[in-house]
Write a structure and sequence with these properties.
11 strands; 39% helix; alpha/beta; Rossmann fold
Length: 399
Amino acid sequence: MTAPSPLPLSHLSVLDLTAHRAGPTAVRQLADWGAHVIKIEPPAEPGAGKADSMGGARHGFDFQNLHRNKKSMTLNLKSAEGHAIFMKLAAKADVIVENYRSDVKHRLKVDYDSVARINPRIVYGSIAGFGQSGPDAARPGVDQIAQGMGGLMSITGEPGRGPMRVGIPIADLTSGLLLAQAIMLALYNRERTGKGQWVHTSLIEAQIFMLDFQASRWLMKGEVAQQAGNDHPTSIPTGVFPTKDGYINIAAAGDKMWKRAAEALGAAALIDHPEHATPALRSQHRKALNERIADVTRTETSAHWIAALNKAGVPCGPINTIDKTFAEPQVRHLGIARPVKHPKLGDIEVVGQPINLSDFPQPEALQPTPDLGQHTDDVLSGLGYDAAAIAALKSGGVV
């Protein structure tokens, strides 16, 4: 039997200084594709109990999903000895990732300039709430603040109901994914130049980037988007429609798709309605159009309409709760729920990668999230510390 090929990033060494969600999301992209990641965490505080020093229960679903495929060591970066150990690791690393407030890394002297002096090949990735410079750079920032400040909450939800947050930490997740992309760009550039660099993004930049056409709508046309609820703001009719046993999504924008949808619904008469003749008229009379479609969709089950619309090539689908999402035959086929064998939690599943490479199939099982400091001794031994020296570091609160 041929041994599996090493994963694409298996030649990379990463130091992970991240906490919470945005930074760990970036590191997860590297760890899942084979990078050797050492997660550096503060030593446990006395009486900390089961709560992890970086936030959340370590054996909880969130932490386990975020930090798989890593090693963990504890290190007090505020101590001189702890800082010296970090620099020894940094001298050999390919990538460092952090998401402190923008000024913290400089106070700790683990910033890009400090590391680049001893390792000019380092690729140093940072995420802050509001950027690395400017009037708000040192402000604390979390996902919901970015959702509000970045305009997303003003266009989410139903008209007249007030601002609404999105149901996932979208600024955290997208900033993490964008930072992972930036790190890969810098690594690719290093192949040509031999030199690393500092790459960074922020929650607010990622959130504005994700506004996409709603942002360009303002920049180019001066239109301030408003809440549109379940209706697509510009592609009509696209939205949620009631059925005999629930709701479905239908996306039938454009003349060709609109005609297909009306015929598949058995409502060809809607095509010739004077308020539906053009996309502009359908937009102008969106509420009335949606009500006429709803009168039809209420007459049959969700499954009936999904089958009919799919057959006609009209985008449509159920509106699942998350348990039903994972029960979908297509989702099961794609295998995005990935198994993990955890020494304490047993057989669990986490959310796998949505990226598929033909030459690098994902491993059968992911490696479990490590316990706090599980690999501290191993990492220190690799730096040349013997048992007595490691014991002294522990007694001194360095690790």
